[in-house]
Specification:
Helices cover about 45% and strands about 20% of the residues. By secondary structure, the protein is an alpha/beta fold. α1 crosses α10.
Length: about 375
């Protein structure tokens, strides 16, 4: 089992909060897609298997790709790897790109899951985020997607947005409840230094939402999701029964994946690889048949820390027997720390699987850092 991630580093405009790698200059988009196909060929032996259980077109904005560009990428993937029957093939889409023609084409090339960047259904909030769509566009695009045959749809939502009221959050949740997507990803807005929000925060033009309000909004979303029948199987991800995001779940479960494109990450079980986030450098390197990446061989300590970080974020939890095998001599110290967090009500031990409590979910990253091996 393995996955493939393709980073499409182009957007129509820059959202005020986003620090992912992208460019708004699309003049060389087809050339970069050609470079992606060459990297796929160059890296075809990176994974321990050529059988793909999941493919994920991320970015950036993959939905801006033209039919010839997407056809090129899909054809090379099919020529290079074996795509398992029933594989999950996801494309991230912005609502304003989701025309009937594009939706039909995506369906034809084998895309069977959409991840739609709605973020909010409030036009004022969307404008403050510098999103390129309106609430009406989002609602129309989701209806069009279902008409085109897409039943497995994720909605991205952002909470803890400066200026967003409690009423606006409730209206968002009410609309999502009516739409009833198969999956919801809900992220607390993080103010990143190199974004417009980051610059405005430094000058006082923007006041970030406080931890208390952010926690209250997150708790409200968790309560709402549980009432509506969604399982919170990872801190930020909620799914209807049997509809977990397989590709993203594989990240948390330690399944190997290949990432192609500038800034893409890869993992093959013993090593991580991070492509450099520069489009033109990437294309030059691929043209010279070189992978522009930084390699990291995982030490035993790295493997323990990664397992702690990823497993604690999930509803499956941390398997103590696996942690003991990974950590060896460090296990008694880790077990003592885990027991102290259990005593504080942050974690719970369910027959050898340590999981976050509601209280622990509010500070999951902080708990993981406390457990990390130096």
């Amino acid at each position: 089992m393995a996955g493939l991630y393709l980073h499409i580093p182009f957007c129509k405009q820059a959202c005020h909060y986003c620090d992912f790698h992208f460019s708004t200059n699309q003049s060389y988009r087809f050339e970069l897609c050609q470079a992606l196909t060459e990297e796929i060929k160059l890296q075809q032996d990176y994974l321990p298997t050529k059988h793909l259980e999941s493919i994920y077109f991320g970015g950036g904005t993959p939905s801006i790709l033209s039919e010839p560009e997407l056809d090129l990428l899909v054809s090379v993937i099919r020529e290079t790897f074996h795509i398992s029957p029933g594989a999950e093939i996801t494309l991230e889409a912005n609502p304003d790109d989701m025309s009937a023609e594009k939706l039909k084409h995506w369906h034809q090339v084998g895309i069977n899951r959409l991840s739609v960047g709605v973020q909010s259904f409030d036009d004022g909030v969307l404008q403050s985020l510098n999103r390129s769509h309106t609430s009406h566009t989002a609602l129309h695009s989701l209806e069009a997607a279902r008409t085109a045959g897409f039943n497995n749809i994720n909605l991205d939502l952002i909470f803890a947005i400066p200026g967003q009221t409690h009423e606006q959050l409730e209206n968002n949740l009410s609309l999502v409840e009516k739409i009833r997507p198969s999956h919801i990803s809900a992220y607390s807005l993080t103010i990143e230094e190199k974004t417009a929000f980051g610059k405005w925060s430094k000058t006082g033009k923007l006041v970030p939402v406080g931890e208390e309000q952010s926690a209250q909004e997150f708790e409200r979303i968790m309560d709402w999701a549980a009432r509506c029948g969604y399982e919170q199987y990872e801190i930020s991800n909620f799914a209807l029964p049997g509809l977990h995001a397989r590709h993203n779940s594989n990240y948390w479960l330690g399944v190997p994946y290949l990432g192609v494109g500038p800034s893409a990450h890869s993992y093959n079980g013993s090593m991580r690889q991070h492509n450099h986030p520069n489009n033109h450098q990437y294309m030059r390197s691929i043209a010279a048949r070189m992978i522009p990446a930084t390699l990291e061989v995982l030490t035993p300590e790295n493997q323990v820390n990664e397992y702690i970080l990823t497993s604690l974020r999930t509803s499956w939890g941390m398997d103590l027997s696996r942690l003991q095998n990974l950590s060896g001599k460090y296990y008694p110290e880790l077990k003592a720390q885990l027991d102290s967090f259990i005593h504080l009500g942050m974690l719970i031990n369910e027959t050898g699987k340590v999981k976050l409590t509601r209280k622990g979910k509010m500070i999951a990253d902080r708990l993981a850092e406390e457990l990390f091996l130096a």
